[in-house]
Design goal:
Length: about 210
């Protein structure tokens, strides 16, 4: 089966590493915005202003498919904490920034610990959710796949791997934090791994 060129619409280095790994050995030639000389434009941050992961994923896929003029995959994902009524949710990446307490992973994790201070383990349940959108052409109807993985929020970070909230997310499947897990172990059970594998199954079965 000949390789199909696929633009992956992310600039997040952690996601780039994981998505490259998920496509290893598959008949796709992955390219990312920098590979296509698609510089970051001022309107790009507005792509993640939707009210759902699906809305954001489709917006990113449509935007980059138009700019790159090639089949495009985009994902949007985040952490949903039950004790926080599903927050930070779609705002996961910029949660601390929205609350004026810094920006980036360290600030987000600090805010999460602060908001859950005093909450017992049995009420710290959470999940990662991911929606992947695929567009064959800029105007095509998007194919959507959604997946989750369940766990709970630790009272202190564990591990040095992963990114985002991984040091605080204790995976029910793995019995360890995502930051303690190898990339292979994380990919096997993670929201992103599950969603992308499901989409790949659809894509490789398409008639040629």
């Amino acid at each position: 089966m000949p390789e199909s060129k696929l633009l992956v619409a992310t600039r997040n280095e952690g996601k780039i590493r994981e998505i490259r790994d998920l496509f290893t050995g598959l008949p796709f030639q992955l390219v990312f915005p920098a590979d296509q000389f698609l510089e970051r434009l001022p309107d790009e941050p507005d792509l993640e202003r939707g009210t759902s992961f699906a809305e954001n994923a489709v917006a990113k896929a449509r935007y980059f498919a138009k700019r790159g003029n090639v089949a495009t995959l985009a994902e949007d994902s985040g952490l949903e904490v039950d004790a926080l009524d599903g927050a930070p949710g779609v705002f996961s990446a910029r949660w601390a920034q929205m609350h004026g307490v810094g920006a980036g992973d360290a600030a987000n994790n600090a805010l999460l610990l602060e908001r859950l201070a005093g909450v017992p383990d049995e009420l710290r349940t959470a999940r990662y959710r991911c929606v992947v959108a695929y567009l064959e052409t800029p105007l095509a109807k998007p194919q959507l796949v959604e997946a989750t993985c369940e766990g709970r929020i630790l009272t202190a970070p564990r591990g040095s791997g992963g990114f985002g909230y991984d040091p605080l997310f204790f995976s029910a499947d793995l019995g360890m934090s995502f930051a303690e897990a190898s990339i292979a172990a994380k990919q096997r059970v993670s929201h992103r791994g599950r969603a992308i594998r499901a989409l790949v199954e659809v894509l490789v079965r398409r008639p040629t």
